Fold this protein.
Amino acid sequence: MTGPSDYIFYAVAAMTVGSAVLVAVLPNIIYAAVALLFSFAGVAGLYVLLSADFLAATQVLVYVGGILVLILFAVFLSNRIADVKINNPGRFRLPAGAICLVLFGVLSFTAVSTPFAVKRTVYLPTTADIGELLMTRYLLPFEVASVLLLAALIGAALLSRPDREAPEAEDMEEGKG
Amino acid sequence: MTLDKLLVVAAALFCCGLYIVMTRRNAVAVLMGVELILNATNLNFVAFSHYLSRVMGGQIFAVFVIVLAAAEAAVALAIFLRMFATTGTVEVDLADRMRG
């Protein structure tokens, strides 16, 4: 069965995988971050094709809107401005490439050659179901995840604070001035 | 679009992420590879959930993976900034001291 959805799938998959390969080979880390954006957006498109509408929206909001901006901030904050060389060629390129290609071959062969018991697929909106399940059956993981997010928030804020003695003195001086 | 094609796409994403984690020296770039790997696993969860089962378990798991990825990215980037302030670099090869 080939239809328009197949062509869309091939286009989106090519964008996703091509961008991921670009992330792997581009030496400039900022270019790699931009390529990563297209890869995340492609994964969101695949979610749409899989009728996972809530996940597609979450992917765009959290990954494209949040994590990628965070990564770009980290790139800019963790390099000296005068240090124009953000280029970052890798190490162990040949063995790592060989390992990854072999692994990709094995995984693809396994995926293609395994006879999966595929059921008839249905395309229904899933947001309401996910919300209901999160409030009933998966309530405990939901609450644990909220505690985890709180802990990560406090930990990140504490870690990224400047040293304790010096900035407080600055604050005092600012208060006086 | 069938299940095995989606699995091949996810395998390609995973291998790209693995290559990045193995080759990059900048810690932020390594984090990008980890995010790619998490995306590949999410794609597998959603694909299996769509094709093989009637329940929403796969998608719920993917939601929790996204939550964990966000928390992990926030804490990791805070650690990198701390490391940059302490040692002046975010090269993973140079981060071999426990005490800054």
Observations:
- Chain B has three helices and no strands.
- The domain at 3-94 of chain B is CATH 1.10.287.3510 (Helix Hairpins).
